[in-house]
Amino acid sequence: MNDLLDTTTTAGTSTPTDAIGTSAAQLRSAELEKRIRHEPGRFRVLTGDRPTGPLHLGHYFGTLHNRVRLQDLGVEGFLIIADYQVLTDRDVAERLVEYVEGLVLDYLAIGIDPDRTTIFTHSAIPALNQLLLPFLSLVSVAELNRNPTVKDEIAHSRQAAVSGLMFTYPAHQAADILFCKGNLVPVGQDQLPHVELTRSIARRFNDRYPTDGRPVFPVPDALLSAAPLLLGTDGTKMSKSRGNAIPLGASADETARLIRAARTDADRHITYDPVARPGVAGLVLLAALCQGRDPHEVAEEIGAAGAAALKRTVTEAVNEFLAPIRARRAEFARDPEQVRRVLRAGNERANAVADETLREVRTAMRSMY
Ligand code: ATP
Ligand code: MG
């Protein structure tokens, strides 16, 4: 595991949490890709999702596709279903079992293999959650306060008041990553400030509680995909809980309906300009990603045919791309017991790993009695 520790890099080490350069992270990601291909066994991936609804195309191109690719390159993976974190922006976690099981189905459908990737739920891993307490002692309130992603989520929150859980969840996420000594976190752009905080927590813990041997935690890296921020049908970040997403498991008709209702603009000629025309560019990018093409080329091809033609192209591209994933999902959905087995086995394994890490943490903190 010591080898994992030298993934510490200069990229982002001294960057304040509210000014993380996506381009720096992208450069670093390209560098990491080379190392992963060369030595997949040196990496351990932690990623996850909140069970707040079905997974969508933003997830797919932002992170899911990377998770499967890394798994298939031979990188060990941990995949957390962050059920406690549902409560960051709402009072009650609704339809929790349905959403948790739905996430597992989505994972299986896109090619996550539960024998190679441990799928588990937050609330079933007490030792992971206990790490939050020492970690909170390592961060300042000011640091938590200036996290740009948390600010954005507070703006979209369903709650009138900001809960302590919302405010502190980036530290909780550090526990998610570090409980299994994850050193590679394939994420979308919104997660960069959180990975930065995790890096600080790992370094501070290692400095504050030196051990005789190797430091307890690796300093993890974010791995950005080529589409770190896919926009939804309203032109803002595609999100499960914002009603602007195209779910992986949606039917072809539902997909057509969602895309028909997408926001475009008054300019009839289709171009790819993400800054000036986010709505249109989001749609063009969706088609391009599904077809594995360059978005400029897709836009040029549609050109004067306008928004209706663009939407037809996107609908076709998305439905064709998702058809095999949807078929596999339907197949897995026929055996609900398999989903529960996957979760039971994943939770058991995650608990063993978390117990061992907590033991190391308590030893380093001299709190083993
Ligand atoms: P919610 O609205 O409930 O927060 P979400 O759609 O933002 O849901 P999360 O579970 O918060 O999804 O995020 C899971 C992972 O997917 C994170 O790594 C995040 O960066 C990535 N992700 C989510 N939405 C997008 C998107 N639109 N584009 C790229 N990546 C995304
Ligand atoms: Mg989110």
Main attributes of the structure:
369 residues; mainly alpha; two-stranded parallel ribbon; 52% helix; globular; binds adenosine-5'-triphosphate
What is the secondary structure topology, with strand pairs?
Blueprint lengths: L21 H17 L5 E6 L7 H17 L2 E6 L14 H15 L6 E5 L4 H5 L1 H5 L4 H5 L2 H8 L8 H15 L5 E4 L4 H17 L12 E4 L27 H9 L17 H14 L3 H8 L3 H28 L2 H29 L5
Parallel strand pairs: 1-2, 2-3, 4-5
The site of adenosine-5'-triphosphate has 20 residues, from helix 2.
Bound molecules: adenosine-5'-triphosphate, magnesium ion
Q: Give, in order, the helices and strands.
A: HEHEHEHHHHHEHEHHHHH
| Helix/strand/pairing category | mainly alpha
Termini Cα gap: 26 Å
Compact overview of the structure:
The chain has 369 residues and is mostly helical. 52% of the residues lie in helices and 7% in strands.
Would you kindly provide a written description of the structure presented here, covering whatever features stand out?
The chain is mainly alpha-helical. It has helices at residues 22-38, 57-73, 96-110, 126-130, 132-136, 141-145, 148-155, 164-178, 192-208, 252-260, 278-291, 295-302, 306-333, 336-364, and strands at residues 44-49, 76-81, 117-121, 184-187, 221-224. The longest helix is centred in the last third of the chain and has 29 residues, at 336-364. The relative contact order is 0.15. The structure holds adenosine-5'-triphosphate and magnesium ion. Adenosine-5'-triphosphate binds next to helix 2.
